[in-house]
Amino acid sequence: MNFSPDGSEVVTASDDGAIRVWHVQPNELQAEFATSFTGGTPDPIDWAAYSTDGSRILASDSTGLVYIFTASGKRQAASRDQPRHHGGDSGLE
User: Which domain holds residue 69?
Assistant: First the structure.
């Protein structure tokens, strides 16, 4: 779980392969991003975090595949070539 830069939202990673964005006040689901684009069973998401400007969400599944979404939900990329990262700072600018 990681907060958006302004603290108004939280992004969560989940074992069901979903990335969810929650409003902090009130506590409501704002968006849910799918990581299985082929219709198969998604791998668990290990972590998700916001870019430092809050415009993108970066996440990685248990196989090391890295997903980049715009904060509005459009998938920008998926790559296995990115280094694995664990922690709250995604390093995206």
Answer: 2-79
